[in-house]
């Protein structure tokens, strides 16, 4: 496997597991502070949403290309983080890609081939809710690919990502980490909540028992694919609210956007009715139980 030692800059962004596979718990804020209250979360999120809109307008104006990858433990909060990023921006600019299982034809292709059409063009922000790194994680751990295929992927990916970055794409890769205790709590809440039961799959249950297999796969993935042109950034998300805010602020800090000049908007006068009156049409109204 290619080590890319000359390209490594392990400057604190890369947080690997300890020797026996257990994830480290460094002095991150989540471990020392109480969980963020909803009121404070919404206040901070509102401010960051305004910055995301400014980023969006800059991307549209400059033709920038941004690609954001979210990987991590089951229940670590990838979906909620992506929702927090996208809920106040245009889906025409911020596009979320969550590919289903590959078809028979796609399985016969080069592994990365089906992801390439979804990479951003000018004026796009593409967010991968899981990505080509499925091969280094769930596929490898659950036996959906061979060990040889996994090693080939780890060796090839840094150069593929170099080509992506060299094409002008701003590539950000996030790994969301959650503690074993918090993962258990979240999975149990899915079992007992009718709103969340759809999130609980047979694969989630099988993956739950393989914590340390996933730890080892994660560590090797970091070692092989953390490069100066496409580094990994780790976010601890036991406190979901803090985790989301930290990720959004980091994303904003790593895209060189500049807010565009604000143009004053004045609503035009609405036309006069010019004799128009509401007709007595027989239309179907929805029930109003609320």
Beta percentage is 5-15%
Q: Specify the number of helices.
A: 9
Mean pLDDT: 89
Task: Tell me how many strands there are.
Answer: 5
Strand count, sense and barrel status of the largest sheet are: 5 strands, parallel
Report helical residue fraction: 25-40%
Query: Helix/strand/pairing class, anyone?
Result: alpha/beta
Order of helices and strands: HEHEHEHHEHHHEH
Q: What's the arrangement of strands in the largest beta sheet?
A: 2-3-1-4-5
> What does the radius of gyration come to?
22 Å
N- and C-termini, Cα separation: 62 Å
Low-confidence stretches: 1-24
Task: Give the key terms.
290 residues; 5 strands; single chain; alpha/beta; disordered N terminus; globular; 9 helices; five-stranded parallel β-sheet
Account of the 3D structure:
It is a single chain. By secondary structure, this protein is an alpha/beta fold. Helix content is 38%, strand content 11%. It has helices at 38-62, 78-86, 104-107, 138-141, 147-166, 180-191, 202-208, 211-225, 240-253; strands at 65-72, 94-97, 124-129, 169-177, 232-236. The chain has a 5-stranded parallel β-sheet with strand order 2-3-1-4-5, with helices on both faces. Helix 3 (104-107) links the parallel strand 2 and strand 3 (124-129). Helix 2 crosses helix 9. It is globular and about 75 Å long. Residues 1-24 have low confidence and may be disordered.
């Amino acid at each position: 496997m290619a080590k890319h030692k000359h390209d490594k800059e392990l400057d604190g962004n890369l947080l690997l597991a300890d020797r026996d596979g257990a994830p480290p718990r460094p002095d991150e804020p989540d471990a020392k502070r109480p969980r963020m209250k909803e009121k404070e979360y919404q206040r901070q999120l509102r401010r960051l949403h305004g910055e995301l809109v400014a980023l969006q307008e800059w991307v549209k104006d400059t033709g920038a290309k941004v690609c954001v990858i979210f990987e991590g433990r089951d229940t670590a909060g990838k979906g909620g983080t992506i929702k927090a990023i996208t809920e106040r921006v245009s889906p025409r600019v911020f596009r979320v890609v969550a590919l289903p299982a590959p078809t028979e034809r796609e399985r016969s292709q080069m592994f990365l081939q089906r992801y390439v059409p979804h990479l951003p063009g000018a004026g796009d922000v593409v967010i991968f809710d899981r990505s080509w790194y499925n091969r280094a994680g769930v596929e490898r751990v659950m036996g959906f690919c061979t060990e040889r295929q996994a090693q080939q992927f780890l060796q090839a990916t840094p150069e593929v990502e170099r080509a992506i970055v060299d094409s002008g794409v701003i590539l950000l890769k996030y790994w969301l980490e959650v503690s074993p205790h918090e993962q258990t709590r979240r999975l149990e809440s899915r079992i007992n909540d009718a709103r969340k039961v759809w999130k609980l799959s047979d694969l989630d249950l099988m993956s739950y028992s393989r914590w340390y297999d996933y730890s080892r796969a994660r560590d090797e993935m970091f070692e092989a694919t953390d490069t100066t042109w496409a580094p990994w950034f780790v976010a601890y998300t036991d406190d979901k609210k803090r985790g989301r805010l930290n990720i959004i602020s980091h994303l904003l800090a790593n895209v060189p956007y500049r807010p565009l000049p604000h143009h004053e908007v004045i609503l035009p006068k609405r036309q006069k009715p010019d004799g128009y009156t509401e007709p007595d049409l027989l239309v179907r109204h929805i029930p109003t139980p609320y």
